[in-house]
C-alpha cells in the first residue's frame, strides 16, 4: 500500500475521545494516589542515549529498542524504560544526601519487541520509584501504593503476586549451576514449566533433594502455607534471608488490610538480571498479561555514579484501560451541561461566559438554524440540556434527560454580580 499517511505504524494506536477521556481520568486518579503517598512527579526526555540502557544492571536487549543517530553520530533511542531515566536523574541531579527520594511519572515507552506478545510497541506507563530506602517497609510501601492505585483506577478483582529473586538465585546457587545454565533454569521456572525443568535437570549432577526443590518451585504459590511448605527443605543462609524478607513484606501487607489482594509466588523471577530482592506483578481477568509489575533493583543507580537502594513499580495504563473496558467498568462519557443556541451571537456568547463563570460546562451551538441537526448533535455528544435564545431574547431550557422545558430569565442571569457573599457554584469554588 502506497498511501501510508492514512495509517499509524505497527504497534501504535490512536486513543479515541471516549477512551481518552476515561484514560485521563484513570491516570489522574492514579496520580492522586501517588501524591497521597508522598511521591513527586518528574519527567524525562523521550529521546535518550543508547548507552544509558546498555549497562550491566539496567541492560535492555538492543533488539527491543528503537535506535537512530543524532547529528554527531551518537546512538539515540526512544526510551524503552522510564525507571532507568529516573535512576540517572537521582544519581546525577538529586544527590543531595537526603533520602529517601519518592518520584512518580506517567509517560510513553517504546519497545520494538513486546515481551508479552501483545503486539504493542508504544506503551503508556504510570509508576513510582523509591530511592535510598532499604528494608521490608519500603518494599511493602510500593506494593501498597500499587494496590491503592489499581483500586482508584476502578479495578476491583486482581491479585498482586509477590516473589523474591534472591531466593530463587540462592536455591539455584545451592546446586552449583551458574551462567547460562542458571539463566535457562530461571526462565523455565518463571514459565512454570515443570516438565521442562525436570528434563533440564536430568543430565545435571544434582542431589535428589535439590532437584526436587527446583522442580517444585512452580507449584509453590498461594498464601502463608507456601512458607510452611518450605520448613522441611534444606536452604542456604542466603535463601533463608530472602525468604524472611518475603515473609515480612507479606505480613505487613496483610496487616495493612490487603490480604485479599496479595499472594505468594516463589517461581516469579522475571527480570532477574535487574531485580535484587522483592519482585511482584499484578494480574486480573480479561487480559493475558500483567497490568503492573515492579520490585527491588539496588544496583541500577550505581551505573550513573551514586549507588542507592531502590524499589519501584509501573502500571501499564493502556493495558489497564483495555481491562476496564472488557470488564465493563468504564463510565459513559459525560457531555456538556448546556448547549447554547442563540439568534443573537453576542448575547449567546455573554450567556455562555456567565454559565462558565458559574462552573458549568457550556458549548456554543454551531448548527445554524437546523433544529434537527442541533438535537442530533446534542444526543450524539451526551449534552444534558439545550438553552435556546430567540430573537426577542426570550429563552428556555430543554432538559434532554427529563424532556422538561423550563422558561429562563436571561436578565437575571446576566445581571448576576459575583462577590464574597455569592452562593453560586463559581463563587463557592465548584470545579
Describe the structure.
With 431 residues, the chain is of the alpha+beta class. A hairpin with an 8-residue loop joins strand 10 and strand 11 (292-296). Strands 1-5-6-12-11-10-7-9-8 form a nine-stranded mixed beta sheet, with helices on both faces. It has two domains: 4-326, BirA Bifunctional Protein, domain 2, CATH 3.30.930; 338-414, 3-Layer(aba) Sandwich (Rossmann fold), CATH 3.40.50.800. The chain has 13 helices and 17 strands. It is elongated and about 95 Å long.
Q: Name the CATH superfamily classification of the largest domain.
A: Bira Bifunctional Protein, Domain 2
Report how far apart the termini are: 48 Å
Which series of helices and strands comes N to C?
A: HEEEEHEEHEHHHHEHHEEEEHEHEHEEEH
Extract low-pLDDT stretches.
Answer: none
- Biggest sheet details: 9 strands, mixed
What's the Cα radius of gyration? 28 Å
Number of structurally distinct domains: 2
Number of helices: 13
Which architecture of the largest domain does the CATH hierarchy give at level 2? 2-Layer Sandwich
Instruction: Average the pLDDT over all residues and give the rounded result.
Output: 90
Q: What order do the strands of the largest sheet run in, or round the barrel if closed?
A: 1-5-6-12-11-10-7-9-8
Regarding quaternary structure, how should these chains be classified? Answer: single chain
Task: Please report the total strand number as a whole number.
Answer: 17
Shape: elongated
Report the top-level CATH class of the largest domain. Alpha Beta
Fraction in beta strands: 15-25%
Amino acid at each position: 500500500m502506497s498511501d501510508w499517511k492514512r495509517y499509524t505504524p505497527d504497534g501504535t494506536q490512536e486513543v479515541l475521545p471516549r477512551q481518552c477521556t476515561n484514560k485521563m481520568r484513570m491516570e489522574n486518579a492514579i496520580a492522586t494516589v501517588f501524591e497521597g503517598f508522598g511521591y513527586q512527579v518528574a519527567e524525562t526526555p523521550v529521546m535518550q542515549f543508547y548507552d544509558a540502557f546498555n549497562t550491566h544492571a539496567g541492560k535492555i536487549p538492543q533488539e527491543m529498542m528503537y535506535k537512530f543517530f543524532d547529528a554527531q553520530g551518537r546512538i539515540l533511542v526512544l526510551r524503552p524504560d522510564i525507571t532507568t531515566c529516573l535512576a540517572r536523574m537521582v544519581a546525577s541531579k538529586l544527590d543531595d544526601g537526603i533520602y529517601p527520594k519518592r518520584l512518580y511519572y506517567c509517560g510513553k515507552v517504546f519497545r520494538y519487541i513486546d515481551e508479552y506478545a501483545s503486539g504493542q510497541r508504544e506503551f503508556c506507563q504510570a509508576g513510582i520509584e523509591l530511592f535510598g530506602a532499604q528494608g521490608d517497609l519500603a518494599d511493602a510501601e510500593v506494593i501498597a501504593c500499587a494496590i491503592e492505585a489499581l483500586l482508584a483506577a476502578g479495578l476491583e478483582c486482581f491479585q498482586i503476586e509477590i516473589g523474591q529473586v534472591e531466593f530463587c538465585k540462592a536455591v539455584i546457587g545451592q546446586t552449583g549451576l551458574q551462567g547460562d545454565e542458571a539463566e535457562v533454569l530461571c526462565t523455565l521456572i518463571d514459565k512454570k514449566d515443570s516438565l521442562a525443568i525436570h528434563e533440564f535437570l536430568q543430565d545435571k549432577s544434582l542431589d535428589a533433594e535439590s532437584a526436587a526443590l527446583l522442580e517444585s518451585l512452580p507449584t509453590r504459590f498461594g498464601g502463608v502455607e507456601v512458607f510452611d511448605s518450605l520448613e522441611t527443605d534444606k536452604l542456604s543462609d542466603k535463601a533463608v534471608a530472602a525468604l524472611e524478607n518475603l515473609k515480612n513484606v507479606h505480613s505487613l501487607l496483610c496487616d495493612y488490610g490487603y490480604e485479599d489482594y496479595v499472594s505468594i509466588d516463589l517461581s516469579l523471577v522475571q527480570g532477574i538480571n535487574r531485580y535484587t530482592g522483592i519482585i511482584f506483578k499484578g494480574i486480573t481477568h480479561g487480559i493475558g498479561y500483567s497490568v503492573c509489575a515492579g520490585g527491588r533493583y539496588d544496583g541500577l543507580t550505581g551505573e550513573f555514579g551514586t549507588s542507592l537502594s531502590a524499589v519501584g513499580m509501573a502500571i501499564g495504563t493502556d493495558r489497564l484501560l483495555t481491562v476496564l473496558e472488557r470488564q465493563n467498568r468504564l463510565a459513559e462519557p459525560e457531555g456538556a451541561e448546556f448547549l447554547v443556541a442563540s439568534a443573537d451571537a453576542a448575547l449567546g456568547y455573554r450567556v455562555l461566559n456567565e454559565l462558565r463563570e458559574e462552573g458549568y460546562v457550556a458549548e456554543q451551538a454551531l448548527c445554524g438554524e437546523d433544529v434537527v441537526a442541533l438535537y442530533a448533535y446534542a444526543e450524539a455528544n451526551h449534552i444534558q440540556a439545550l438553552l435556546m435564545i430567540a430573537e426577542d431574547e426570550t429563552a428556555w431550557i430543554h432538559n434532554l434527560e427529563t424532556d422538561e422545558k423550563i422558561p429562563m430569565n436571561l436578565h437575571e442571569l446576566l445581571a448576576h454580580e459575583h462577590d464574597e457573599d455569592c452562593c453560586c457554584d463559581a463563587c463557592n469554588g465548584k470545579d
